[in-house]
Design brief:
By secondary structure, the chain is α/β, with parallel strands linked by helices. It is 34% helix and 21% strand. The chain has a single domain, classed as Glycosidases (TIM Barrel, Alpha-Beta Barrel).
């Protein structure tokens, strides 16, 4: 009788442990959701974190919501917790073309205004933290001020935020997240990477836009590895990850960023099926929704797969039109890379550009299904 009860107890404990481990995702999925007239369909069970984009920084150094729709969108995102109680809703501040960061980080009084206003927004909208998307400290941008002092000042700003969030967490018995979006190469030169890694919960590495309107040739805008025909030293996701790891970021604090959109190039010079060839017009965006509906499997467009780069592209020889993008196959390869490197997970930009969550499903399966015992 005793042995039977002991056996039943062990089975019960084992079952509970397996159930608990199934609930704890070994890799995180972070999805950016943009403000807009309406939220796209979001399957909360497939996500760990939603980053709502974007709040802005005012000339008074305070963080604010720039649109009248933002409070309602944040309420709707909060309601997703009913489907996934573990889902974190984080406010992302900044984005490409957003200014006033340099001034807000420049001295203690300005940093206090930034921190105070950030905490006010987090509390007012029942959020789980802040994601700072300063593109990029010390670097020039479209009409954006910058300074060599940004490098140290950004670290101070993040440390001030961390201290406030930790104090708030102790007061309320709740964890508050602090993350950033960052890019490799020149964009990373304005970061004290090892220092901020100690302060942050994680870094979302923007591993895309390697080729676009400013590049001289076509190319894989979000390739995992370097194509055989790419110029030596050209950016790849692997190279960016290695740069941040070498700089002192713990692997679990690094999320690989993937693109739910593509880049297209027109008037491409013939040869190599359009890959890494000069072009004369384009470099702009196409959502995965547009690519999968209007170009993939359409007459004249041929899908190619770069085995070395682990990246697809479309080429229309008659129109001389080249499209670089991520698809389910390349995302599965990136998920495998994340597992092999022991990274924290995958971040994507952005949810509304997916088509019926096809790409999110590929990320979800690649990270979660393959990790099950």
């Amino acid at each position: 009788m005793f042995r039977t009860l002991a056996l039943l107890f062990l089975i019960l404990v084992s079952t509970v442990d397996v159930a608990a481990s199934a609930e704890r995702a070994p890799y995180r999925i972070v999805g950016y959701v943009s403000d807009g007239a309406a939220l796209p369909k979001i399957s909360a069970s497939k996500l760990d974190v939603v980053n709502f984009a974007f709040a802005r920084v005012g000339e008074d150094h305070r963080v604010f919501l720039p649109t009248p729709t933002a409070p309602q969108r944040l309420r709707e995102l909060g309601e997703l917790r009913r489907d996934n109680p573990r889902l974190k809703i984080v406010l992302s501040v900044g984005g490409w073309g957003a200014g006033n960061f340099s001034e807000a980080a420049a001295d203690a009084a300005a940093r206090k205004a930034f921190v105070d206003s950030s905490v006010e927004l987090v509390l007012a909208h029942d959020l789980d933290g802040l994601d700072v998307d300063w593109e990029y400290p010390t670097r020039p941008g479209p009409g954006i001020s910058h300074s060599p002092a940004d490098r140290g000042n950004f670290s101070l700003l993040l440390e001030a935020l961390r201290a406030r969030f930790d104090a708030l967490g102790r007061e309320r018995g709740r964890e508050y997240l602090l993350t950033i979006a960052a890019a490799d190469g020149e964009a990373a030169s304005g970061l004290e990477i090892a220092r901020i890694a100690r302060t942050l919960d994680w870094i979302n590495l923007m591993s895309y836009d390697f080729y676009g309107s400013l590049s001289k040739t076509t190319g894989h805008h979000a390739s995992l590895f370097r194509s055989a025909s790419a110029r030596p030293g050209s950016r790849t996701a692997q190279q960016g990850v290695e740069e941040f790891l070498r700089a002192g970021v713990p692997p679990r604090k690094l999320n690989l960023g993937v693109a739910f959109y593509g880049r297209h190039f027109d008037e491409v010079e013939p040869g190599n099926d359009g890959l890494n060839r000069p072009y004369h017009r384009g470099g702009g965006y196409l959502s995965w929704r547009q690519i999968s509906t209007d170009y993939l499997h359409r007459e004249g467009y041929v899908r190619h797969w770069d085995e070395r780069a682990q990246a697809p592209w479309l080429w229309n020889a008659q129109r001389r039109h080249f499209i670089s993008y991520d698809d389910p196959q390349s995302l599965r390869a990136k998920a495998a890379f994340v597992r092999e490197q022991g990274l924290g997970g995958i971040m994507y930009w952005e949810h509304a550009t997916d088509a019926d969550e096809q790409l999110l499903d590929a990320v979800d399966a690649g990270l979660r299904e393959a990790a099950k015992p």
